[in-house]
């Protein structure tokens, strides 16, 4: 709904339901407060019975703040104060009532508050421009969540809190870009929501690059492996918004799950941490060692700890296929053991052998006997070795002609092919 017919001094914006769409609050000069929620389709729709419909005589200013720090914007609104003439009775009436409207919306989404502070830790930031995007979509308008410029006034003779409040819907993390008054940018990626992010104008100087990830995490071919480094000053303070470059040196992995990316630069977040998701290459074992390098510098000089190379040996993935490896189409005498073993191999989707996976061998034609580990039967199960191979001996039955054995394996209850 555009072209709202309302006479007001105090009109302010804010995201009162934290859905990432800006809403509107206005005070009728001689009427009530009105709340208009953005329907995400280009309209502001008035909401009734919200609690802001208090009576204002010569309503004036309004401002937003999160007065109880619960992640939901509240509203403070005032009347001018003085003597008013009642339109009906023409009597003079004093007035000066102000209102604090506490936001108790229970269905509100998640939020991020950004507090830019001065050298003394006090809220500041006039002239800073803040852009919010969905995580991984920095500067991509399809992932745009919001924009604020910190200004001194909001509405009539009013100033809202300098702490910038963004509703982000259901997003658990976001990317943030802040344009500083000096023209420089600060970028923070994967910032957790439902918190207050504090940004200091003081530019910290990084001196050290330190690993900050679990080296014991599961390493499987074709799957993600998190690599993270932290940046510190000489005084051991975490350094935000500083670039760390990651480069894959070996293993044919990628730094993007969808396309092949071998070099990627990531700025450290507000905790001084630069994180990248490394999709490991397709080859398991020592023949497919994966290696990544992290580098960071300041004014042309490498930081202590840079470059840092890290290697990981990936294990095979889940069983995907069973292959006939050896022993097929042999000739032999009835009731005699064949000269060559029957060999089947279980592999993952990349062709790596899967160790310790059960394979069932079964005589399906010819009444022969299978042998393994000192035991014999018409049907036996053995586990694959470290390279994914399963072996079985076969004593032919007494029937002349074609005799058959099947090798079978399954994964999560489904037969492999």
Describe this structure in a few short sentences:
This protein has 417 residues and is an all-beta fold. It has no helices and 36 strands.
Structural overview:
The protein has 417 residues and is an all-beta fold. The chain folds into four domains: 94 residues; 90 residues, no CATH class; 108 residues, Immunoglobulin-like; 94 residues, Immunoglobulin-like, CATH 2.60.40. Helices cover 0% and strands 46% of the residues. The protein contains no helices and 36 strands. Strands 1, 2, 3, 4 and 5 form a five-stranded antiparallel beta sheet that branches. A five-stranded antiparallel beta sheet has the order 27-28-33-30-31, with no helix packed on it. It is elongated. It starts with 10 loop residues before the first strand and ends with a strand. 33% of the residues are buried. The model has no long low-confidence stretch (mean pLDDT 90).
CATH uppermost class of the largest domain: Mainly Beta
Count of the separate structural domains: 4
Low-confidence stretches: none
CATH homologous superfamily name of the largest domain? Answer: Immunoglobulins
Please name the CATH architecture of the largest domain. Answer: Sandwich
Gap from first CA to last CA:
60 Å
Main sheet makeup: 5 strands, antiparallel
**Could you tell me the mean pLDDT?**
90
Tally the beta strands: 36
- CATH domain topology of the largest domain: Immunoglobulin-like
Name the structural class: mainly beta
What's the helical proportion of residues?
A: under 10%
Gross morphology? elongated
Proportion of beta-strand residues: over 45%
Put simply, the count of helices is 0
Gyration radius over CA: 34 Å
């Amino acid at each position: 709904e555009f072209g709202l017919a309302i006479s007001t001094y105090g009109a302010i914006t804010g995201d009162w339901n934290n859905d990432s769409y800006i809403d509107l609050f206005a005070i009728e000069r001689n009427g009530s407060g009105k709340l208009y929620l953005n329907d995400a389709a280009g309209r502001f729709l008035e909401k009734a019975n919200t609690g802001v419909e208090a009576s204002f005589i010569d309503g004036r200013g309004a401002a937003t703040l999160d007065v109880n720090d619960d992640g939901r914007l509240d509203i403070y609104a005032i009347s001018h104060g003085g003597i008013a003439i009642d339109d009906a009775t023409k009597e003079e009436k004093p007035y000066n009532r102000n209102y604090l409207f506490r936001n108790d919306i229970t269905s509100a989404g998640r939020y991020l508050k950004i507090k830019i502070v001065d050298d003394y830790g006090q809220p500041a930031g006039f002239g800073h421009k803040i852009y919010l995007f969905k995580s991984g979509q920095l500067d991509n308008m399809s992932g745009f969540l919001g924009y604020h410029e910190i200004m001194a006034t909001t509405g009539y003779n009013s100033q809202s809190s300098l702490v910038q409040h963004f509703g982000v819907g259901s997003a658990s993390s976001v990317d943030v870009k802040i344009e500083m008054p000096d023209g420089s940018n600060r970028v923070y990626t994967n910032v957790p929501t439902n918190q207050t992010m504090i940004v200091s104008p003081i530019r910290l100087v990084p001196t050290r690059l330190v690993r900050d990830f679990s080296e014991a995490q599961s390493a499987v071919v074709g799957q993600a492996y998190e690599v993270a480094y932290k940046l510190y000053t000489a005084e051991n303070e975490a350094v935000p918004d500083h670039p760390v470059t990651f480069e894959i040196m070996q293993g044919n992995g990628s730094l993007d799950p969808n396309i092949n990316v071998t070099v990627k630069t990531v700025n450290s977040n507000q905790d001084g941490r630069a994180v990248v998701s490394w999709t490991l290459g397709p080859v398991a074992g020592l023949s497919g060692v994966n290696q990544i390098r992290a580098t960071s510098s300041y004014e042309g000089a490498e930081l202590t700890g840079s470059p840092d190379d890290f290697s990981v040996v990936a294990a095979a993935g889940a069983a995907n296929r069973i292959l006939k490896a050896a022993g097929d189409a042999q000739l032999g005498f009835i009731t005699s053991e064949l000269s060559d073993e029957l060999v089947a191999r279980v592999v993952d989707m990349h062709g790596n052998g899967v160790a310790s996976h059960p394979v069932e061998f079964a005589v399906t034609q010819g009444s022969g006997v299978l042998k393994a580990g000192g035991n014999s039967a018409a049907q036996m199960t053995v586990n694959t070795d470290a390279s994914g191979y399963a072996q079985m001996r076969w004593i032919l039955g007494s029937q002349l002609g074609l005799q058959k054995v099947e090798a079978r394996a399954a994964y999560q209850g489904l037969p492999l092919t």
